[in-house]
Design a protein that fits this description.
About 40% of the residues lie in helices and about 15% in strands. Helix 11 (about 250-265) crosses helix 12. The chain has one domain (about 5-365): TIM Barrel (Alpha-Beta Barrel). It has 15 helices and 12 strands. It has helices at about 5-20, 30-45, 50-55, 60-65, 115-120, 130-140, 160-175, 185-190, 195-205, 220-235, 250-265, 290-300, 305, 360, 365, and strands spanning about 90, 95-100, 150, 180-185, 210, 235-245, 270-275, 310-315, 320, 325-330, 335-340, 340-345. A hairpin with a 4-residue loop joins strand 10 (about 325-330) and strand 11. Mean pLDDT is about 95; it is low at about 125-130. By secondary structure, it is α/β, with parallel strands linked by helices.
């Protein structure tokens, strides 16, 4: 697949126009990851494979809509502290997000922060200066000792130049005295060569928890494994979290293989979550009833070292779990979660949209005939 087929090329062009109009992130992919997609398309003979769907638009991504979609379901802007607008989010007493950048190595079609990031991309310069934001953050933390963890997100923090990354991490660790620092990233999957020896050592020296967002077992190739080994050898603690995505990984066998592979690589999976009901998300969302059934099947058919991971949904008030579901009218598609006394209405995905992925496509390498 040196170039997309005409139909896919037309779809890509149409999506780029839609992205400009409706505040979505434009198509962006690294050469490293594109090669994986090319292999997938060649093997399948079509563009509906799991890795392709994660990066390039499909017809249902653009045309299938569900009731209750909004630009920003979790109200990111409402949770940005004064003085740190567009630079930080705080939903919890003991931890907060900080954005060193709004840039990602590639753009995931299922991104839950499309609205905010697309807006930042339009308003250059994207943030004020990193130094200024870091100064404001240090002042903010100095007045709030209850914040024990800073989570670097964005955008992807690992895309910033090494001197800036070092400045951020050493400021948080040595000047702000933050006990716990976490980095969330997709660069290990999109562009693993970012993890040069000095970068790996920096992460180890500042005691960072590196949380990858690996969504499918086929994203982990020999080169990715190599850099995972480098990080482990340096003593960097490795974690993962990922969304449950329709027609990407929405089958117990895919989840079993994925979670087993992560465990073999000594990567602890923290959570699985489903996409927020934001604009143009219906192509990836899973109906709550099927979600619970899928997780039950995974739990019944795998050992605890595979299935001991949280399943969560994000909201304005923070993450909620299955046990927080207090009302669920399957017919009307309305659910209500309760967190700390707050009622959170949640629009479910209509049953007629929730078409599961085909296992032969989801695990096409396993389904391919022996040569």
């Amino acid at each position: 697949m040196n170039t997309p087929s005409l139909s896919q090329e037309s779809l890509n062009i149409a999506f780029q126009e839609l992205a400009k109009k409706d505040g979505l992130l434009p198509i962006k992919v690294t050469g490293f990851y594109r090669k994986k997609i090319e292999e997938e398309v060649t093997a399948l003979g079509h563009h509906e494979g799991p890795l392709h769907r994660g990066i390039y638009p499909t017809s249902d991504r653009m045309n299938v809509r569900a009731p209750g979609e909004v630009p920003d379901f979790v109200d990111d802007r409402e949770n940005m502290p004064e003085g740190l607008k567009d630079a930080a989010i705080r939903k919890y007493d003991n931890r907060m997000l900080f954005f060193p950048t709004d840039v990602c190595a590639a753009h995931c079609q299922y991104c839950f922060r499309q609205d905010v990031l697309a807006e930042l991309h339009e308003n250059e310069p994207t943030f004020t200066t990193l130094d200024q934001n870091l100064t404001h953050l240090k002042e903010y933390l100095g007045q709030r000792p209850e914040v024990q963890e800073v989570i670097l997100s964005g955008g992807d923090p690992m895309t910033i130049a090494y001197p800036k990354l070092e400045h951020v991490l050493r400021t948080l660790k040595e000047e702000a005295k933050v006990p716990h620092i976490r980095i969330h990233t997709r660069t290990l999957i999109f562009s693993p060569k970012i993890f040069k020896p000095e970068t790996v050592q920096l992460l180890a020296d500042t005691n960072v928890r590196l949380v990858n967002h690996t969504i499918h077992p086929y994203e982990i190739c020999e080169e990715v494994e190599h850099y995972i080994g480098e990080l482990r050898a340096a003593g960097v603690r490795l974690y993962n979290q990922f969304p449950l995505l329709r027609k990407v990984n929405d089958h117990p066998e895919v989840l079993r293989q994925h979670l087993t592979r992560l465990d073999e690589l000594e990567i602890r999976n923290l959570s699985m979550f489903i996409p927020d009901p934001i604009n143009y998300s219906a192509a990836f969302r899973i109906r709550l009833k099927r979600l619970f059934s899928l997780i039950d099947e995974l739990n019944w058919s795998t050992p605890s070292w595979v299935n001991s991971t949280r399943v969560v949904l994000d909201t304005h008030y923070g993450k909620v779990r299955r046990e927080d579901l207090k009302e669920y009218d399957e017919e009307s598609g309305q659910a209500v979660f309760v967190r700390e006394g707050n009622r959170i209405p949640y629009p479910d995905l209509p049953a007629d949209i929730d078409e599961p992925g085909d296992l032969k496509t989801l695990l096409w390498k396993d389904s391919a005939p022996a040569v």
